[in-house]
Amino acid sequence: GHLVCIMCIIVDIQVPLQKGKTARELLEEQGLWEEYRLKYPYNPMAKFNPRFAVGTEHMTNDADLAYYGVISVGTPPQSFKVIFDTGSSNLWIPSIYCSSPACQNHDRFNPGLSSTYRHNGQPLSIQYGTGSMTGFLGYDTVTVGGLAVKNQVFGLSETEAPFMQYIHPDGILGLAYPRLSASRATPVFDNMMKQSLVSQDLFSVYLSSSSEQGSVVTFGGVDPSHFSGSISWIPLSHELYWQISVDSVTINGQVVACNGGCQMIVDTGTSLIAGPQNDISNINRYVGANGNQYGDYLVNCNSVAQMPDLTFHIHGQEFPLPASAYVRQSQYSGCRTGFSGGGDSLWILGDVFIRHYYSIFNRAQNMVGLARSR
């Protein structure tokens, strides 16, 4: 394959991401988290459950999602906050036809106010781990980071799952492969490539760990200011999600998970690192975390500096994740690890991993590039 040209960045196609308060933080502040957690159990794997064929894309109440960006739809533009989700492929936003509680506290799209809107009317249904989003498809100009994507098909919601009212973003912009798309709707990035809006068929994600600002998605390029060292290119094992083969996961040279190899999906739309319960329990045990009745694994905040790296062995290279990256501190629930169980065999490398490794999603060569974030 040819080398990806680093110098040909079109710098202006950067979409800044905000790091807002998570649903969990807002609920903890109000003392509602425990009740909510029982009502809407978190199943990080619901989205990737192979028992549900392509066509129903799964999401669940990921109460720790923090990153979203602003796009606009229509002429004149109506603005929406969306999760840029590499684990799904549809774009959908709330519409004025939606009366669910979640639509009352979010911005809603009014197609009647857009001169470029075209009705499609085909129904769209996206399953969540707890309820679903239903609606219909329309076409309009969708502007992302100053790029106007013409005739973009998107979902207008008519009903939304109750937990959506607790999350800050209005909708979701999927960045996985077109085969995954519900109702066979062409994903936004596929249209960017078709309409020659990007100089390279790739996009990159930088998630900042600290401040509200700094996180960014770069469409069509790579931003060297956000990583150091070289980029490791990993071929996809399956072109549906951004899925790669991992050889093992070790702590201090000892295999603690993914023994004999496993499949992992690089997913900006999942907050944690999720995997099979046995493997996750094992990792949490090795790093000295104790489970509580809510499924959190807690550690002593004072011992984070002494905790070991978790090392992912991928494509002949090592990707260590220090405790400073995999432990999250909250003023309400202390320090907890960013590992979540519940899957059968697939793993998800969510934001806990992507914050540490700048991630490049290359559609031209069907590879994921990983480089150390800075």
Main sheet: strands, sense, barrel: 6 strands, mixed, barrel
- Which blocks of ≥5 consecutive residues have pLDDT under 50? 52-59
Indicate the CATH architecture of the largest domain.
Beta Barrel
Question: What is the CATH first-level class name of the largest domain?
Answer: Mainly Beta
Overall number of structural domains: 2
Protein name: pepsin A
InterPro entries: Aspartic_peptidase_A1, Aspartic_peptidase_AS, Aspartic_peptidase_N, PEPTIDASE_A1, Peptidase_aspartic_dom_sf
Disulfide bonds: 98-103, 258-262, 301-335
Keywords: Aspartyl protease, Digestion, Disulfide bond, Hydrolase, Protease
Short description:
By secondary structure, the protein is mainly beta. Helix content is 11%, strand content 41%. A hairpin with a 5-residue loop joins strand 18 and strand 19.
